[in-house]
Amino acid sequence: MNPAAAFLISLGQCLSTMSLYASGHPARERVIDASFARLLEVLNDIQLAEFSILQGGVVYQGRVLEELRTWDWTTRLAGAGIERIEIDADVTREGWDVALDAMFQQLNGKSPESNDVRQQLTASAVRFGSLRVMGGNGEVRPGNAPVITGEADADAEEAASSLALSLSDEIATVNWIHEEVLTGGNIPMAEVEAIIGSLAVAMRANEKLLLPLVMMKEFDEYTTTHACNVSVLSMGLADALGCSRAETRAFGVAGLLHDIGKVKVPKEILNKPGRLTDDEREVMASHPAEGARILLQREKGMQMAAVVAFEHHICIDGKGYPRMHFERGCHLASRLVHVCDIYDALSTNRPYRKPWTTEQVLNYIEERAGTEVDPEISRTFATMVRSSTIGHVAMPPREDVSSPEVHTGAVAGAGAPPAVPPLAI
Ligand SMILES: [Fe+2]
Ligand SMILES: [Fe+2]
Questions:
Q1: Which-ligand-closest: CA of 256?
Q2: Protein residues with C-beta less than 5 angstroms from the ion ligand 2
Q3: What is the pTM of this model?
Q4: CB under 8 Å to 148, separation ≥6 — which residues?
Q5: Could you read off the pLDDT of 38-76 as tens digits, one per residue?
Q6: How far is the CA of 313 from the centre of ligand 1 (A)?
Q7: All domains of the chain in start order, with CATH
Q8: Distance of CA 69 from the midpoint of ligand 1 (Å)
Q9: What is the 247 CA–ligand 1 centroid distance (Å)?
Q10: How far is the CA of 50 from the centre of ligand 2 (A)?
Q11: How many CA atoms lie within 13 A of 158 on its CB side?
């Protein structure tokens, strides 16, 4: 078994044993000794062990621990706000004891924030807490302030304020995912899933569907904001079309990754303020095929996302790109993402034109029903947008987005306020 997984299992055994035996009892000391020995194995050749604990598994040093997919303690630890554990290589047995005791207290509803233990932990080699509040250097810092601002109408403002949600973790994670893929890494699926779960929660702020759409501040932020927005819109639309929960989530993933092939397009072309030359347009038009290739080569089980990446610029009359050798209908998910893609692209400020209003974009889509876009999908989309609240989410400060540590917090991001009922997906 992976030493990190073995260590976490021994951590769970410690916490179970601590509820049976008081401090100093030999049985308790034995399991703590055993877990410390496992910990030293983990720290044998690294300076810092970082664990992110999600509802669906554990991410260790950026990779999912397959052995812990069904580990009971993920739910208990995450439920108690222990979503991230960071341990320095110089941890001592005493320090580990103190940290275990603090975790045990937190699991039992006593926040270490209220006692001296918290201060000890902040300075110690073991840190834990909510992913949302863990800083990159391991220090505990205040949670992010809400950054959703509602539209002018009172409904939107009410929805926004009741959400008290920041998407800065999710946005930072999307940015990080693009960087990972750009440098040849695999698609970090745990983070992708966490973002989808988090966005889905954000969308059900109240009775009315909330579409938390991220507003770009700088032109080079488009790839990140666009991925988040197309994902949100795709999930809302899939839900409105009566798709199953699993399909809706899968469409959200496909929406998030539909333009992943743009990592292969040079930034000068991607962010060019003027019109593209023919050669540049050709490079840009390669992103659907590149995206499909990345998704098929680097990750298992991404066939549908790959199909969507390939087909999302193909119109229902066969026009668009890439040109298919044999005309055939596109997948439902591709037709759905196509509409969401148009909506976000036209609603966003671009270097060469101002953003369109919601009604202008919906009219544009409706005019193209039956030629470019699927009539039923576009009709449902227009109804969904008109009957939803659009929550404008501000981009977080740039240092948050680019910080390499923030992505781990973002896993957390998955954790929106628990009181918010999730979308039925
Ligand atoms: Fe695209
Ligand atoms: Fe797109």
A1: 2
A2: 259, 341
A3: 0.59
A4: 160, 163, 165, 166, 167, 212, 391, 392, 393, 394
A5: 999 999 989 989 887 765 567 787 667 778 877 888 878
A6: 6
A7: 3-133 (no CATH), 148-413 (1.10.3210.10)
A8: 33
A9: 21
A10: 33
A11: 7
